[in-house]
Amino acid sequence: MATDRAVLENYMQAAGLKYTLRDDYIHTSFATDVYRNQDGGSALFMVVRLEEDGEYIKVLAPNLYNFPAAAPNAQTVFRVLLGICWRTKLIKFEYDEQDGEIRALVEFPLEDAALTQKQFLRCLNGLVQIVDEYHPAIQSAIEGGSGSLDEAEQFSDIMRRTERLYKAAGILRDHQAEVSSADLWLEE
Known about the structure:
Blueprint: H1 5-14, E1 20-21, E2 26-31, E3 43-51, E4 56-66, H2 74-87, E5 92-96, E6 101-109, H3 117-142, H4 149-168
Antiparallel strand pairs: 1-2, 2-3, 3-4, 4-6, 5-6
């Protein structure tokens, strides 16, 4: 039992996600906290594509970064990308040496199994969360820095704890900028 695009559309509609249908794929985007795309926007653009008559699924973030193959810090960039693959369970990175495109993706065979909504949403959310978490390390490596995965994870952990504190204090995320330091005392 393969999965078809109508099933994916139903899953996206049930989750309240916005999307656009293209010829052979679904296009969507998610807001990010840390990741900035090449235009400086805080959104991750994603493509969902079924292949092999619905027996194989790909969820990818194309044009995530652009990195020229001849750059002197290529070893650091690729070490960081492979390190992320090692530390996470879900995503992998692809690199096109022709144009320098780095993309992240989740892909796996469905064969005769139906894709569940829970699996589908985990792929979408996981891709966004992992890219968002490790963006500082990737961006640092691209810019010639160390690309520390540990520092990126620590920063992400601090962001999550801060989010939980704001939530516990009843402060809506969209209004955090309105809260002054005198209004809230954060301690470890």
